[in-house]
Amino acid sequence: MGKVKRFFFKVAAVFLAFPSLFAHAQSTRRLENPLRDIGTVPQLVRAVLDVVVQIGAPIAAIFIIYSGFLFILARGNPTKLEKAKSALTWTVVGTAVLLGAWVLSQAIGGTIEQLRR
């Protein structure tokens, strides 16, 4: 009986968390092209990286907060402090890679657009 309850609560959580998905799916009858405004490869790369940055930035913030909690919970324990330092270091590296890719795509896309004129 426990498995049935857990399954029911998982399904209910999906319906409660994403009600607009199900309501929207019922109200529209045809699929629309999400790439209708994108005509070139640089525009596609910009659009993809914009979505990645919009998703990645909050995740990076959450991991920075998590690293802070690791520092607090370490309480001077050298092994736990090393784990907290490592988590913070890799979070900052990942964030730098994410934002660096976005900046490079913006710069390259801008350069290509200027060269086309």
Order of helices and strands: HHHH
Give the total of beta strands. 0
Shape: flat
* Main β-sheet description: none
What number is the mean pLDDT? 81
Share of β-strand residues: under 5%
Query: Count the helices. How many?
Result: 4
What percentage of residues falls in helices of 4 or more residues?
over 70%
Q: Which value, in Å, is the CA radius of gyration?
A: 22 Å
- Terminal CA distance: 68 Å
What structural class results from the helix and strand content? mainly alpha
For the record, the count of structural domains works out to 1
List unreliable stretches of 5+ residues: none
Structure description:
This protein has four helices and no strands. Helix 3 runs antiparallel to helix 4. It has one domain. By secondary structure, the chain is mainly alpha-helical. 84% of the residues lie in helices and 0% in strands.
Secondary-structure map:
Blueprint: H1 2-17, H2 19-27, H3 41-74, H4 78-116
Helix pairs in contact: 3-4
Could you name the key traits of this structure?
single chain, 117 residues, mainly alpha, 4 helices
In short:
With 117 residues, this protein is mainly alpha-helical. It has one domain (35-116). It is built from four helices and no strands.
